[in-house]
Fold:
Amino acid sequence: MGCLRRRSECCWRVSVFAGGFTAEAAEAIADEDEDTLYSLESLRSNLLSSVVVRQRANHHVSLLQTVADFASAKLVEVGETAKTAVQAAHARYFLGYSDDMVAKR
Structure:
């Protein structure tokens, strides 16, 4: 997969997050063949650095709202199967995250 296409896919995948996300969360919704962390770092540090914004000291990042809106529209365009897979991965990540938080109490 080409670098630009990988970055584009990374954007529409992380568009499922409302607000920010961590690298761990982005990795959890990644396609097994996709290097999401590389793509996120590449987006942040290269010419497209204005697309990803670091939010807090705890390593949360977010897409600029206009980019997030565009990426969300692309997620719809890629088809129901891909969209459902990304949304299911997102749900699994947060279910696991909430289970971990409950276990730590």
Q: What stands out?
A: The chain has one domain: 3-104. The chain is about 65% helix and 5% strand.
